[in-house]
Queue: 2 jobs
Job 1
Amino acid sequence: MSLSFEGRVVLVTGAGGGLGKEYALAFAQRGASVVVNDLGADTKGGGKSSAAADKVVEEIRAKGGKAVANYDSVEDGEKLIQSVLDAFGRIDVVVNNAGILRDRSFARTSDLDWDLIQRVHLRGSFLVTRAAWNHMKNQKFGRIIMTASAAGIYGNFGQANYSAAKLGLVGLANTLAIEGHKYNVYCNTIAPVAGSRLTETVMPPDLVAALKAEYVAPLVLWLCHEQCQENGGLFEVGAGWIGKLRWERTQGCTVRRKNQPATPEAVRDQWDKICDFTDATKPANTQESLQSIVTVLSQVESGEINMNPTTAPAASVSEINPANAVGYKIPPSTFDFTHTQCILYALGVGMSTKDPDHLRFLYEGHSDFSCLPTFAVIPSMAAMMDGGLGAIPGLSIDLTRILHGEQYLELYRPLPTSGKLVSEATIADVLDKGSGAVLLLDVNTYSGGELVCFNQFTVFAVGAGGFGGRRTSEKAKAPLPPPKRAPDAVVVDATTRDQAALYRLSGDWNPLHIDPSFAAMAGFEAPILHGLCSFGFAARHVLKRFADNDPSRFKAIKVRFAKPVLPGQSLQTEMWKEGDRVYIQCKVKETDAVVLAGAYVDLHGASGASPESLTQGDGLQSDLVFAEIGRRVKDTGSELVKKVNAVFGWEITKDGKTAAQWTIDLKNGSGSVQKGPFSGKVDVTFTVADEVFMEVVQGKINPQKAFFSGKLKVRGNVMLSQKLEVILKDYAKL
Ligand code: NAI
């Protein structure tokens, strides 16, 4: 579907020419009411004329668009926004684009050169945006664009004043993105490149002509559309190319030791390490940036960073020897359980009697009482927690510094709800990621000698890398990114303040999840939720939305633990269904931070009767036929209504489960064909598999035969099935 701006009111500042003009034309062309602002100044900010804005407005109107001109300076932000409200009654989009240049080498930059640039670019964008802000907040919609420049991001000779203002806009946008987020007011920044009167003095004429301003407009329109959920992004754009920027930070180095002063010599000695971008991190917000820094405090205090800063970190070369470790089997462990553990686990991952369909996991007397599939991680956890990890040959690691990185779980049969499970863990591989070592632990769990499930734990041992091992492994179950489209389903579910306190009772006793002082030592503001608890939430969201809460349909799940969750925060699971695979991404609703990434759930026969497949009817051949019947009924409905005078209900099944419902109404009005649950009275209902339906339609099998062989089931007024021919007879051609 093309992106429309019908009903939206857009302000583009400095739209009398150059880039702003192209934005104004593009917005208007897609239905927006546009305020074309331009002071009509020269490139240095001198002079004033209404001609520039008027010409653009004329051009828009000539093409049938809606636009008015405004000649205020962006320094009159309030006045400017008031004129937008006077003209169109609301403000949805602000594109801060107005700009001037006063290039000088730094030594020759005058106060006026400095001030004018700050006033137009930075202060102007501030004033216009502030005037629009509350209107956007109140209407819970707003899109704001800031215009930065490569000169600000990278620096450019002779543009100190301009660079400062342009990067200032990035900072402004970063904070607006945070403050506006919950009101659906998003702010993004672009650094465009285009031929315009601003660049004609610095670019050769053929480049000015080739780098058309119209190549930039599509990005601006997308970022300003209601469908676009990007917020706080920074993009370089030009020539029809668009790229996104972010910050990168080296692993860094702590140059301080317990009870000793930090010295410039230590900084000098560690300089290469401080500046080494190998395994760089990409902090996305202040919390992430701070967290690792605050961790250093407790690390230094606990003596963890106590070596001479020039020596290697904790686990040194001799302590990890993959050749000895890989293939090592941890002694098997036995897990005895009853329905109590199943129920405790279900409560631990947020199930509640508030949802009647959760009862089958919460009440042992329920006729379908079952164990949640993700409970299968619990017995295998036990296998490792029983001290197994501590005694592996060739693997001497600091167990207080291990992080659970990823999890893969595959079930071969539904879990029993009580009994004895035996788990056998093997070190599948040990990888060297530089900053740490990655252990792949494969755990097979058996019930009465039969394999029930397989778990792969990906464990990151901080500081244990650098032993010269491989970086990747063919044994690793890889995380997969979700499709690049809006999710098919989103579920938001609050965790409680006591979620971690409850979850740990299932067997994960790490104090990190309950003890505030322990959590603080690890650098967290409070005890964090178990990654496997969020994992349980996300898995049951998929199970409910796409598999009718039927544990036998659950095949496998993979997740990467990207960020911590605090108990009490809400989890937002976004789901994309592609065949039998449901890609998932789980975020903390309050912060928008992705906590489970690269995740997916595989289902058995996922095209069954979940509400989604009822409405989507994935890949059913019969859909085409019903669509065609619908078209014909539209054309000749009244005639058919006279002939048939009945309402037919269809249940199309796939793999034995209802996959779609259709109503062919040839009784009321001039007839209609509708997909979805039957509405109103149906005279006769046919239940038939998608493929049998196609055989009937193509004349390969006649309806009576299908009926007598049990392939076509009929309920209600059976006699009416004779009238079926009237509807179906012409479809053999399809
Ligand atoms: P332009 O000079 O064609 O357009 C800027 C417009 O802003 C002019 O029409 C001018 O009259 C108007 N303007 C100046 N001061 C104003 C004020 N106080 N109030 C209202 N309007 C005012 O230049 P261009 O290239 O289209 O630039 C648009 C924006 O993109 C500017 O912010 C510029 O700094 C930025 N930019 C452009 C690049 C390029 O390659 N063209 C590179 C990087 C950034």
Job 2
Amino acid sequence: MAQLIDGKVLSAQIRAEVKEAVSKRIDSGKRPPYLAVVLIGEDPASASYVHGKAKASAEVGIRSDTMTYDADISEQEVLKIVERLNRDDSVDGILVQLPLPSHIDDRKIINAISPAKDVDCFHPESVGNLVIGLDGFQPATPAGIIEMITRSGIETSGQHCVIIGRSNIVGKPLANLMLKKGIDATVTVCHSRTKNLPEIARQADILVAAIGWPNFVTGDMVKEGAIVIDVGINRVDDASRERGYRLVGDVDFGAAFEKASYITPVPGGVGPMTIAVLLQNTLMAATS
Ligand code: NAD
């Protein structure tokens, strides 16, 4: 039977650390860190993420402003907004909530953000620094996973980490963090074209699922004693819930729980860690 890695508890630790650092900063006469958030359109999920980020920022003493714009804003206008925020010395971190409406090229907007203010760690310069192992902003979800593992006292050196999913926001940056000196895992990345995926998954000491497919990882894909990190957030119909659905991860939790040594729940696992790392990044942006 596995031990639960509680993302709520661990993220609360990080938030408390950021809060203390922010309060020391203010005590020393400096202004609070300032995160500028750009939200375009009315996607309810994006609005809810942005609300969560603003609330978490306020709780640790980080100032954050959400600038909202209609979905029909032009790409040129968004670029101008980003440039204005880049020039504004009072702004430490800039976050443009993705996805953007289809007439705006996400990549153009991300590339326009100053790397010094790129708290999402999506700019090619930030990603390059990550790949070559330089210090800098950390990609929120992957860094949250590393925090969960290391704060739980789990050994990573020489462990075989199998990551299922190769997205730019989870799979690929996590592979780089796992390879980093000090973490020192041996990494395999699987994706939709991988052959013999269950067989590879069974070799994992640390198995990370970031696919977006409920119950993709079945019990027979988990090695006895493995550490299972479930990144997925999926809605499945559930008539017994008032809202008509519940959230599940990519792992068959019940089956994996029986075999794993540690496992993250969904919800309450990786999710809360993501915002905590964003706060760490914003503090770093203000101090560097
Ligand atoms: P994505 O859609 O960009 O990538 C999914 C990946 O899964 C792809 O690389 C694809 O190759 C792989 N995949 C798809 N089908 C596969 C198959 N049959 N076999 C093997 N691999 C397959 O998704 P993403 O943005 O990386 O997100 C993945 C999941 O994690 C989603 O459920 C998302 O909601 C969740 N997520 C959670 C957090 C968090 O904070 N907890 C953050 C980001 C994403």
